């Protein structure tokens, strides 16, 4: 039977070159409609997971050594980034990687190259509604936006492709507490609009406030998996994620 999970990763191992194994036998699931968070310290393998899912691994010199990645009933293992976007999986690039010399509107166009016509216009209206700050700054060079606004633009750009699954790689990195709250609200709104979310985060408090379930990754392995409510109550885990455990 074909699984209709938004994401179903099974036994995934990833290498960079010959000597570095960044993920070991990682298995995880994002059911359709869920927000699932992946937490872990620096170097645990979180970004590697995002790259494997979105096809960006080869660009970074990485490769899938074993395992499968399925999404909405199809095997997408080793597909190209563009094919994966077409399939309905979009991600915000690491850091904020927006095009600084282009306007906000042009950056959004770049995110919408796989959709056309009415759908493109609807997506544009939807993201400007979600991010009024970007609406106000449509014609401004993206490089002149504040850090928080650039982060919003990265999320908005990913939403332009009508994703069924959105992969967010540390969307709160470097943001003020107020903006972290805004990102959390935005993730809830995205989920309510019907998009599943894989949320990669170091900020466990924020991640567990919006997620349905979570996984903890350490040295390339999943060491813990539970509902967000149970993970929130786990003090040992909180210490681990703060680097104290
Ligand atoms: P961070 O939050 O610091 O980005 P992370 O949990 O996302 O950490 P990864 O960036 O996935 O972790 O890194 C996992 C391991 O793979 C680390 O040991 C890292 O040094 C290594 N690694 C990551 N990218 C590359 C690369 N392009 N080439 C070689 N090794 C890499």
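^ structure tokens above, recovered residues below v
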């Amino acid at each position: 039977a074909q699984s209709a999970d938004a994401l179903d990763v099974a036994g995934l191992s990833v290498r960079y070159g010959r000597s570095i194994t960044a993920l070991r036998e990682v298995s995880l699931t994002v059911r359709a409609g869920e927000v699932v968070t992946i937490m872990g310290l620096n170097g645990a393998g979180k970004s590697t997971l995002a790259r494997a899912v979105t096809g960006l691994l080869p660009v970074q010199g990485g490769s899938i050594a074993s395992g499968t990645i399925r999404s909405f009933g199809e095997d997408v293992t080793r597909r190209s980034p563009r094919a994966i976007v077409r399939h309905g999986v979009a991600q915000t690039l690491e850091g904020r990687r927006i095009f600084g010399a282009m306007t906000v509107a042009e950056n959004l166009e770049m995110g919408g190259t796989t959709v056309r016509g009415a759908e493109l216009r609807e997506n544009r209206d939807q993201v400007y509604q979600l991010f009024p700050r970007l609406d106000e700054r449509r014609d401004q060079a993206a490089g002149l936006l504040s850090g928080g606004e650039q982060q919003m633009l990265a999320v908005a750009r990913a939403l332009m492709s009508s994703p069924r699954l959105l992969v967010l790689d540390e969307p709160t990195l470097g943001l003020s507490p107020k903006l972290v709250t805004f990102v959390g609200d935005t993730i809830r709104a995205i989920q309510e609009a019907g998009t599943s979310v894989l949320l990669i985060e170091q900020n466990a408090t924020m991640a567990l406030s919006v997620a349905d379930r979570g996984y903890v990754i350490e040295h390339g392995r999943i060491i813990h998996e539970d509902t967000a409510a149970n993970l929130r109550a786990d003090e040992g885990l909180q210490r681990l994620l703060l680097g104290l455990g």
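The pocket of adenosine-5'-triphosphate is lined by residues 16, 20, 22, 40, 42-48, 60-61 (CB under 6 Å).
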